Amino acid sequence: MTRFIHDQFAKDYLEELLKPYGEVQAPSRVAGEVREIDVFFSPAAQQTTDLATLGLLGKFATNPAIFEPFRNAASKEEICDCLLKLLEVRGALQREANKNQTPIQELEIPKLWILTPTASTTLLSGFRAVQGEDWLPGVHFMADYLRTAIVAIHQLPQTLETLWLRILGRGRVQEQAINELKALPSNHPFQKATLELVYNLRQNLRVNQNLEEDDRELIMRLEPLYQQDREQAKLEGERLVVENLLQVRFGSLDNNLQAIIEPLLALPPQEFTPLLMQLSREELIARFGRQS
């Protein structure tokens, strides 16, 4: 069943994004009946990195947070189950405060963020969840004391601020987000790790025989990206080999040695490796240097 695969991807993904900013438990068990919170996040007291990098997700993570991501549209029963988890956490905090004879601090109580690919108006109205003031479209808050929001991912605007949430969408929403992820600068702090998680999701789905249409389309969309990345990684690995061999033999890479790297990379590794080991500096430059 592919739902478990997507659930695990969502937990791993949120953990990867949030762990630089605090403590992440994915999953986290709560009292009462055996229930597991998908992701329980506690922000670090002193932030060493900027949460704004995560856009809207970073805004959610400013305070303690429970994240409950869904692959399929969350049902009213599933949302009620999420609320139970939050109330059990709140109850545990209240018991601890009573034991220590200290008032419970409102900021200690986590907010619940229910991440659903879609949410109908009937579902939202049933929970009296309304679009939050000064929040982007798609973020619907229940009554204040419930400290809960339903995030309808399909309603989020297609901006960099929402990218890290739209990765958890479905169909075209997720496809667009993956394309935007691939287009980010290669030095973006979360691009490489996120792509690796997405490619792992692709691999896990490929071994499953009973795929939904959405999953088959996702695999097809990821295939060229995956192959492109693997080829890029192969080329980078070969470049590193060439640079290391040149440095080991001749020390620092001056302009003349830099100039022969690309011509050498035009050869397969089994050809350029013995040449790098056997030819002198002058012979390499004469053979592969730029013609004046």
Features of this protein?
2 domains, 7-stranded mixed beta sheet, 9 strands, alpha+beta, 12 helices, Trna Endonuclease, Chain: A, domain 1, 292 residues, two-stranded antiparallel sheet, single chain, 12% strand
Question: If you had to describe this structure to a student in words, what would you say it looks like?
Answer:
The chain folds into 2 domains: 2-181, Trna Endonuclease, Chain: A, domain 1, CATH 3.40.1350; 231-288. 52% of the residues lie in helices and 12% in strands. The chain is built from 12 helices and 9 strands. It is elongated.
Instruction: Sketch the topology as an H/E string, one letter per element.
Output: HEEEEHEHEHEEEHHHHHHHH
Supply Rg: 25 Å
For the biggest β-sheet, the strand order reads 1-4-5-6-9-8-7
Say how many strands there are.
9
Distance between the termini: 62 Å
How much of the sequence lies in strands comes to 5-15%
Give me the CATH fold name of the largest domain.
Trna Endonuclease, Chain: A, domain 1
Query: Segments where pLDDT lies below 50 for 5+ residues?
Result: none
Summarize the structure.
The protein is built from 12 helices and 9 strands.
SSE map:
Blueprint (H helix, E strand, L loop, with lengths): L1 H17 L3 E4 L2 E3 L4 E3 L1 E5 L11 H6 L4 E5 L6 H25 L10 E6 L4 H6 L3 E2 L7 E3 L6 E5 L10 H4 L4 H13 L7 H16 L6 H38 L4 H5 L1 H5 L3 H10 L2 H8 L4
Parallel strand pairs: 5-6, 6-9
Antiparallel strand pairs: 1-4, 2-3, 4-5, 7-8, 8-9
